[in-house]
Amino acid sequence: MLTSQRKQLILEALKRDGQVIARTLSVEFDVSEDTIRRDLRELAAEGQLQRVHGGALPASPAAVDFAGRERIESASKAEIGRAAAGMITRGQIAFIDGGTTAVQLARHLPRDLRATIVTHSPSVAVELAEHAELEVIMIGGRLFRHSMVNVGAAAIESLSHIRADFYFMGVTGVHPQAGLSTGDMEEAYVKRALVERAAETVVLASAEKLNAASAYKIADVSAASTIVVERNTPEMLTKPFEALGITILRA
């Protein structure tokens, strides 16, 4: 069997089963585990999968920068944002993450809502500039341009002084075993700090992020009390999370 054929079969197994195990593949293809590990390394370098101990998981396709993501699936992101915005009520304090779906959340907050929004996203802060009843607290730090959020020690230190009712989290991967993940280490640290300072974490996740993984883990999936998904997201993608006691809110 040609290497290209074997790689294609690995990707098909990954899509079908949601994960692959190197030892199982070596038996199935009658090759060494070293050969399978090399295949997995090469596929990971191409962004086709995310390697984990003993095998691989589907890679999140959410690697496009902020400007590129703004042009993709805007309708579904708007629906997720609208549903999440409806969870914030008068007098509450909410962390809103960075990312294009978070901007949609901010865009759908009622103009007469009296609440406090804390964000490390300049894009979210600008979106809320005309909401006169909202108190908007901007967390500073180094600007991570890919996601248009502030990161670093200064951001984490600022967050340590705030307690919120909700944290609306953006991710690139949501997986029952691999947890909540993202593609940048510093961004993961800030998201972890936000989880720790919020009473409840709500994950905003379009379908392609479910059962996928990125390189940097934020927290176990159990850190999320609710996952907001598109209305037509297949049940096979959401059932593993419902089995863990996580609420699935269909936008």
Automatic annotation (TrEMBL):
SUPFAM superfamilies: NagB/RpiA/CoA transferase-like (SSF100950), Winged helix' DNA-binding domain (SSF46785)
One Gene Ontology MF term: DNA-binding transcription factor activity
Keywords recorded for this protein, A-Z: DNA-binding, Repressor, Transcription, Transcription regulation
Superkingdom field: Bacteria
Residues annotated as domain HTH deoR-type: 3-58
Pfam families xref list: DeoRC, HTH_DeoR
Protein name: HTH-type transcriptional repressor GlcR
Organism: Paraburkholderia sediminicola
Gene that encodes it: glcR
